[in-house]
Structures are given as C-alpha cells and as structure tokens.
Amino acid sequence: MTTAAGATPVASPSEPPRHPLDPDPVRATKARAVFALGLMGALTGLLVGGVVPATVALLLARQARREAYASGGFLTGAAWLRRGESLAWTGLTLVAVTVIAMVVVGVIRLAEVPYGHDYAPNVD
User: Fold this and answer.
1) Is residue 94 part of a domain?
2) Is residue 121 situated within a structural domain?
3) How many degrees, rounded to 5, is the angle at CA 44 between CA 42 and CA 47?
4) Residue 76: beta bridge partners?
C-alpha cells in the first residue's frame, strides 16, 4: 500500500469512519465510583452499614447510564457499571437478610420473657 500526500487512512470494514473532531472514547469516571461503592456495600452488607454505599452506587449508576447514553458512545465502562450495580444489590440483600434475622431473634427473645410479674411463691 502506498500513501499519497493528503490521503486519508482507510478505516477497517467493521468500524464506521470517525470524524476528526470526534472525541476519543473514554471510560466514565462514575463507572469506577459505582464499582468501588458497590464493592464497599457488598463487603459491609452484613454489618448493615452497607446500605449507604450501595444506595449511593445505585443512584450514581443511574446518572452514569444517562450520561453514557447522551454521549453517543464516547463514554465507556458499561461492564464496570453492571458489576457495581450487582455488587450494590448484593449489599442491599445482605442488609435485608441481616435486619430480618435480627428481628426474628428479637421476637424469639421477647417471646421467651415471662409475661407479667413473677412474684415469690408466698405472695398472694
């Protein structure tokens, strides 16, 4: 292949030609934040503290998806978003399981407590 002066590079058949002023595709920074918050939510889910980072991760993922759609394909990181969202839902599930288990244990302990006053046998 010879190149002549002023010739434009030939694009591969699988890729549409890009305009020279188009920005380069970059990974969305919110995608990394969603993954990190989702991971923190999943790791601290059993301690009930995971509800905060998991909720923030889900809200941030919604914003990141909106921005990626509006960018027309120049913001990448959909895989990081999916992983972060699944980790955030895992963290919220662990929080729900922990809260339900604590409520069940509390109800069982409350049921074991005798009802009313427990007087001595010689009291009427």
Assistant:
1) yes
2) no
3) 130
4) 27
What is the Rg, in whole angstroms, of the alpha carbon atoms belonging to the chain?
Answer: 28
Q: How far is 96 from 46, CA to CA, in rounded Å?
A: 9
Return the DSSP state at 124. -
Using 70 as the pLDDT threshold, list the residues of the chain that sit under it. 1-13, 15-16, 18-19
Q: Which of 107, 88, 105, 97 is nearest to 37 (CA)?
A: 88
Task: Kindly state the percentage of the chain with pLDDT values over 70.
Answer: 85
Give the CA distances from residue 14 to residues 1, 8, 26, 58, 80, in Å, rounded to whole numbers and listed in that order.
Answer: 20, 17, 20, 34, 25
Q: Is position 16 within any domain?
A: no
Residue 122 lies in a domain: no
Give the structural domain span for 102: 26-112
